[in-house]
Write a structure and sequence with these properties.
The chain is an alpha+beta fold. It has a domain at about 5-65 and about 70-75: 2-Layer Sandwich (S16 Ribosomal Protein, Chain: A). It has helices spanning about 55-60, 70-75, 80-90, 95-180; strands at about 5-10, 15-25, 35-40, 50, 65. Strands 4-3-2-1-5 form a 5-stranded mixed β-sheet. Helix 1 (about 55-60) packs across helix 3 (about 80-90) and helix 3 packs antiparallel against helix 4 (about 95-180). The N and C termini lie far apart (about 180 Å). About 10% of the residues are buried.
């Protein structure tokens, strides 16, 4: 029976994750499988891989053929390299201890590489956050400048309006004062009392 190591899709639309399975090559992609040996989640950065190293190595050794994506996952986790080292031991190129040492060096280098990748990602996020913060500061600064100008313009307009109103009041007062000064004074007429004539003869009744 020809077997394949491939991915079986799960999840929802827009957020798919995959199970790494060993299945009959004639079975549908998401159909029955022989064994599940891991999972692959490409939605994280870097992608999250959870793999049963020993079982994946076993299936490679017995002839299971990985698909392109599954081969990428197995290579990233070192399964393909470990298989290559074990084949070298079988051929007598080096002993098992040397193979383990080589694999240990590879793992150390891989961990450092992953750590560097995570550090770069962290620094990139910090740089992006800093850029966004600076941009937000500039926007706030521009808004504050516009607001300050509006307040200054409002204060100037209010001062001009107050000055105009004061000028109108002063002009009205001057006009009223001028009108009062131009009005002629009314001379009081002194009425002389008519003289009272005294008569000695008082008419009497006869």
């Amino acid at each position: 029976m020809a077997t394949k190591i491939r991915l079986q899709r799960h999840g929802r639309k827009g957020y798919a994750f995959y199970q790494v399975v060993v299945a009959d090559s004639r079975a549908p992609r998401d159909g029955k499988f022989i064994e599940r040996i891991g999972s692959f989640n490409p939605n994280t950065n870097p992608a999250t891989i959870d793999l049963n190293f020993e079982r994946a190595l076993y299936w490679l050794q017995v002839g299971a053929q990985p698909t392109d994506t599954a081969r990428m996952i197995l290579s990233r986790e070192g399964v393909c390299y470990k298989k290559h080292l074990l084949e070298g031991v079988k051929k007598g190129a080096f002993d098992e201890a040397a193979a383990e040492e080589k694999f240990g060096q590879w793992l150390t280098k891989k961990k450092l590489s992953l750590q560097d990748e995570k550090n770069k990602e962290r620094e990139a996020k910090k740089a992006t956050a800093k850029t966004l913060l600076e941009a937000e500061k500039e926007v706030n600064k521009a808004k504050a400048a516009v607001l300050s100008k509006k307040r200054a313009d409002f204060a100037i307009a209010a001062a001009k309006k107050a000055a105009a109103e004061a000028a109108e009041v002063a002009a009205a007062a001057e006009a009223e004062k001028a009108e009062i000064s131009e009005t002629p004074e009314v001379e009081e007429e002194i009425t002389a009392e008519a003289p009272i004539t005294e008569t000695s003869d008082i008419p009497t009744k006869e």
